[in-house]
């Protein structure tokens, strides 16, 4: 990021961007896109993240509306996935990328790799937990992703997803209504921010002590159906939010076909009780042998993980052939060996979630200043002390907790690392994104996505009162 301009009020934003874009009423008119990308968007993003409340709100609105003007539309991937469930395409696995830290630089690297490899089948996501510990509320997250797309010249649908919008089992046991209320409030916040893809995770409530698989899954499928109906009640006009369910908590035992069938049959019954015509989930997350972040050994190296691709293939086939949804979703895969990634599309997985591998590139980059890395670790020794177990080595403790070193007071320090360091990290991330896009089979998917997904132009109310409209002659003859 170039050194940002820090705005005092919305009028300063307009003055700074007047050569790049103008306002005609509430409509954004692009005067000079090249100038916007090279000079304006970096400061707009900075103020959308770190600005004072009034400036922040206005910057976020401008980013959203500028994206709309340029054809960058947050979208639902529902139709794309349902088409997969009906045989419209195969042999690709959509990467869902959790952007935890250095969000702008990471998203820029991702979009550069997407443009170079003609990738449109791509999801940006953040989980309920990540929203908290990385200090990224939904509206900020969307602003950064859309802003990065503007900066790099990306066009078309942008799929932004709420990952693991999860029911916390301990909180639910103590206060069911309170826990559901908290999750619903997050959903109410996320949908207007452009999160038109939401993974409902009530798998934490699967009760393996029950005598039958159907009974074990009952609370899971009932609450997933109830939350599906709640989300449908909040959908913007002409948008069917893509929903995911989950039958096995990541890191526990592998999922089975019996569990998938029990969940789906119960879910459809429960959903029909709300509305027999209501669209359901478009994918199902399963467990096949991974854990989030991998398992770190005492020396800091990762344990070898073996994914059961036969289970992934079998359950994906059942999901498509019986229930006509896109297939099974794989979590916790970013730290697998490079030789594993092409197997996801071969096994028919519709989506794979990737997070820690990108985080590792950032933390382990040779140009990241050691003094800064140690400052992050010093923070974690205190802030995450409760997560340390007696047998943890430093390597294990920091590996498990460093995802929590991106937010709070450290967030701005990450964003203001020297430009040459951020550039080098971005180049390493871009290389990794490009590799994964090719291995997962999503290169050259722009035409396919454009054929199956119809973006909706959505405009948001201006956060402030009217400002003098620009006259039409002021923009006549200027470059787009």
Counted beta strands: 11
Strand residues, percent: 5-15%
Structural class: alpha/beta
Name the poorly predicted regions: 465-480
Question: What's the shape?
Answer: globular
Please indicate the count of domains. Answer: 2
CATH class of the largest domain: Alpha Beta
The CATH architecture of the largest domain can be named as Alpha-Beta Barrel
Radius of gyration: 22 Å
Looking at CATH, which topology of the largest domain would you report? TIM Barrel
Q: Distance between termini?
A: 23 Å
Quote the average pLDDT. Answer: 92
What percentage of residues falls in helices of 4 or more residues? 40-55%
Q: What is the CATH homology-level superfamily of the largest domain?
A: Aldolase class I
Task: Please tell me about this protein's structure.
This protein is of the alpha/beta class. It has two domains: 10-70, no CATH class; 74-368 and 417-452, TIM Barrel, CATH 3.20.20. It has helices at residues 10-16, 33-50, 53-70, 78-85, 103-116, 128-133, 138-152, 169-174, 176-190, 213-232, 257-274, 309-323, 342-347, 356-363, 370-383, 394-401, 411-415, 419-439, 446-452, 472-475, and strands spanning 21-24, 27-30, 72-75, 94-98, 123-127, 156-166, 197-201, 242-246, 283-286, 328-330, 351-354. It has an eight-stranded parallel beta barrel with strand order 4-5-6-7-8-9-10-11, surrounded by six helices. It starts with 9 loop residues before the first helix and ends in a 5-residue tail after the last helix. Residues 465-480 have low confidence and may be disordered.
């Amino acid at each position: 990021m170039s050194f940002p301009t820090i705005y005092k009020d919305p009028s300063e934003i307009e003055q700074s961007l007047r050569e790049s874009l103008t306002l005609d009423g509430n409509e954004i008119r692009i005067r000079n896109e090249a100038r916007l990308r090279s000079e304006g968007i970096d400061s707009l993003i900075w103020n959308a993240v770190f600005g004072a409340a009034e400036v922040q709100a206005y910057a976020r609105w401008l980013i959203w509306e500028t994206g709309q003007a340029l054809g960058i539309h947050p979208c639902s991937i529902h139709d794309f996935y349902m088409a997969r469930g009906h045989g419209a395409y195969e042999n690709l696995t959509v990467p869902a990328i959790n952007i935890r830290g250095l969000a702008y630089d990471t998203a820029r690297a991702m979009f550069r790799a997407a443009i170079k490899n003609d990738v449109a089948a791509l999801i940006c996501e953040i989980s309920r937990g990540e929203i908290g510990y990385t200090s990224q509320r939904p509206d900020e997250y969307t602003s950064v992703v859309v802003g990065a797309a503007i900066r790099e010249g990306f066009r078309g649908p942008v799929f932004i997803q709420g990952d693991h919008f999860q029911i916390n089992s301990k909180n639910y046991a103590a206060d069911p209504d309170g826990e559901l209320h908290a999750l619903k409030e997050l959903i109410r916040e996320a949908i207007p921010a452009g999160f038109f893809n939401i993974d409902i995770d009530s798998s934490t409530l699967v009760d393996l002590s029950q005598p039958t698989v159907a009974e074990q899954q009952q609370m899971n499928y009932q609450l997933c159906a109830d939350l599906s109906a709640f989300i449908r009640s909040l959908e913007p006009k002409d948008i069917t939010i893509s929903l995911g369910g989950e039958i096995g908590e990541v890191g526990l035992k592998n999922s089975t076909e019996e569990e998938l069938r029990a969940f789906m049959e119960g879910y459809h019954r429960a959903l029909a009780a709300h509305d027999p015509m209501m669209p359901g989930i478009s994918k199902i997350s399963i467990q096949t042998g991974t854990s989030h972040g991998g398992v770190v050994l005492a020396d800091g190296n990762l344990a070898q993980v073996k994914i059961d691709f036969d289970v992934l293939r079998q359950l994906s086939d059942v999901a498509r052939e019986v229930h006509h949804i896109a297939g099974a979703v794989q979590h916790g895969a970013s730290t697998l060996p490079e030789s594993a990634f092409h197997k996801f599309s071969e096994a028919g997985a519709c989506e794979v979630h990737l997070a820690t591998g990108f985080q590792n590139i950032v933390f382990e980059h040779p140009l990241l200043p050691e003094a800064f890395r140690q400052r992050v670790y010093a923070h974690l020794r205190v802030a995450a002390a409760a997560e340390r177990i007696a047998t943890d080595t430093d390597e294990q403790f920091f590996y498990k907790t460093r995802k929590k070193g991106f937010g709070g007071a450290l967030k701005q320090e990450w964003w203001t690392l020297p430009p040459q360091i951020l550039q080098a990290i971005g180049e390493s991330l871009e290389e990794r994104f490009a590799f994964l896009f090719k291995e997962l089979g999503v290169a050259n998917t722009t035409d396919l996505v454009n054929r199956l997904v119809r973006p909706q132009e959505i405009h948001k109310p201006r956060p402030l009162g009217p400002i003098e409209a620009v006259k039409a002659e002021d923009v006549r003859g200027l470059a787009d």
